[in-house]
Specification:
Layout (H helix, E strand, L loop, with lengths): L15 H26 L6 H23 L4 H7 L1 H32 L5 H11 L3 H18 L1 H4 L4 H8 L2 H15 L1 H4 L2 H33 L2 E7 L4 E7 L13 E6 L9 E4 L8 E7 L3 H4 L10 E7 L12 E6 L3 H10 L4 E7 L8 H11 L2 E6 L9 H7 L7 E5 L2 H14 L6 E3 L7
Parallel strand pairs: 7-8, 7-10, 8-9, 10-11
Antiparallel strand pairs: 1-2, 2-5, 3-4, 3-6
Helix pairs in contact: 1-2, 1-3, 2-4, 2-11, 4-5, 4-6, 5-6, 6-9, 15-16
């Protein structure tokens, strides 16, 4: 297989993740400063509660727009930060939006109630009935409260992804309602033409980013590349590899270590998207994914027919050689997490040590390919088998297998418990945090 290999970044280069993260922080800080400027320029109400409520509402609106940017799946951000981290930041930003908008509603309501003869509940009803846009804001807040509730960990674990995702789509309804409320009654919005232009720009950029990253780009790439199943190859009794072909795949900006959200367009699977990593470095002619039968959806993959149309969203992920900081690497795989590790080994330059952790020899999927690749590239390959306890990737074992592990980049992929344990071991042996690369693919689904 012919692959296009990229040399690692020089050790002195600024890390791409640091550049992207710093850029996001700078953009958010700059916009907070602009919001505060327009807020103070608009003047204050006589009631301190109303002033506080208005400020909370403006900051909540800004965070809502920023939250949309985080999940827009913009390629530049995704390759440098990763969908898992962006999704996590989106989640915590969402809770910040919820608290900011709750504070907005409470302070505004109590502020107006303080200067009237109404109690807070009747004051809110009066505002919703008499002030344009307030009822829309109340509905938007109700939607956001529901979404926040189902996004809490105790609820999220009890909901099917499709159910949670469907409810989450109502965020866009809340965004539209909140924006129209801001247009109708936002003092800061209407205080000057510059403020009006600024807020239209903020919402325009946020919504355009989502529209482009989540709709336009996937539709365009699938129209251009016309993905189809080329072959289905069983790797074991419960693991299968799917080969995907298409047009102009050499123009697809995919790298080893990345994943796609795959939809196989059959009558019983077209609606279901699953995140699977590439299990071979892209060669310009075909893509390959390798999946374990962990549910009804992935188990049905072995029954796909050659020629089946595929809708692929991606490539996504920051688990690539772009983030290398050292000339040599350690690749640690657990179970079917070997798929991006195998692809990375194919692409990486420099000496590599591969550690493959499985319960038994029979579970070592793609092991034959790893052996061939390791021999061709002069890499060391260690197959570590056995039960979960004792921990065969404990600090002492890691340093025995790789004595110079602190001087290498470490790429890690496997089941979450195994990854957590290995990350702890790496921390204990003194591997710097910036040299440890992993991605929690389950969050992408």
């Amino acid at each position: 297989m012919t692959t296009v290999q990229s040399p690692p970044a020089p050790p002195t280069a600024i890390r791409p993740r640091v550049v992207a993260r710093t850029g996001l922080y700078a953009v958010l800080a700059a916009n907070v400063a602009v919001v505060l400027y327009f807020f103070f320029a608009a003047g204050f109400a006589s009631n301190a509660l109303i002033v506080t409520g208005r400020l909370a509402g403006l900051l909540g609106a800004l965070l809502m727009a920023f939250q949309l940017l985080l999940v827009a799946r913009l390629p530049w951000l995704d390759r440098r930060i990763g969908m898992d981290r962006l999704t996590s930041w989106h989640r915590w930003t969402g809770f910040s939006v919820l608290w900011a908008l709750l504070a907005h509603a409470v302070f505004i309501t109590f502020g107006y109630a303080e200067s009237s003869s109404l109690d807070p509940v009747n004051q809110l009803i009066d505002l919703a009935e008499t002030v344009e846009g307030v009822l829309r804001a109340v509905v938007a807040l109700g939607i956001i409260i529901v979404i926040g509730a189902v996004s809490a960990r105790f609820a999220r674990r009890r909901l099917a992804y499709e159910t949670w995702h469907f409810i989450h789509l109502y965020t866009y309804v809340a965004v539209v309602l909140a924006f129209t409320h801001q247009v109708a009654v936002g003092t800061s919005f209407t205080s000057s033409s510059a403020a009006t232009a600024y807020w239209y720009g903020v919402w325009g950029v946020a919504l355009a980013s989502v529209f482009t990253g989540r709709l336009v780009l996937p539709l365009w790439r699938n129209w251009r590349h016309q993905f189809r199943v080329e072959a289905v190859v069983p790797e074991s009794h419960n693991v299968v590899s799917i080969y995907i072909t298409g047009r102009d795949l050499d123009r697809l900006p995919a790298r080893a270590g990345q994943f796609f959200l795959w939809r196989f367009l059959t009558k019983d699977r077209w609606w279901q998207a699953n995140p699977f990593s590439l299990s071979a470095a892209p060669d310009g002619d075909r893509l390959r994914l390798t999946a374990k039968a962990a549910g009804d959806g992935s188990a049905a993959l072995r029954h796909l027919k050659p020629g089946t149309r595929v809708f692929a969203e991606g490539p996504y992920g920051a688990f690539t050689a772009l983030h290398r900081t050292r000339p040599e690497a350690v690749l640690i795989a657990g179970g079917v997490g070997v798929t991006p590790i195998r692809a990375l080994l194919e692409e990486l330059h420099g000496h590599a040590v591969v550690i493959y952790r499985v319960a038994s020899d029979q579970d070592a999927v793609l092991y034959g390919e790893l052996v061939e690749l390791a021999q061709a590239k002069g890499a060391e390959l260690h197959l570590v088998t056995g039960p979960v306890t004792p921990d065969r990737l404990a600090p002492a074992e890691l340093t025995r297998l790789v004595p110079d592990i602190t001087d290498r980049d470490v790429f890690l992929c496997g089941p979450p418990p195994m990854m957590n344990a290995v990350i702890g071991s790496l921390r204990e042996v003194g591997v710097p945090k910036e040299q440890v690369h992993f991605e929690r693919f389950s969050l992408a689904g």
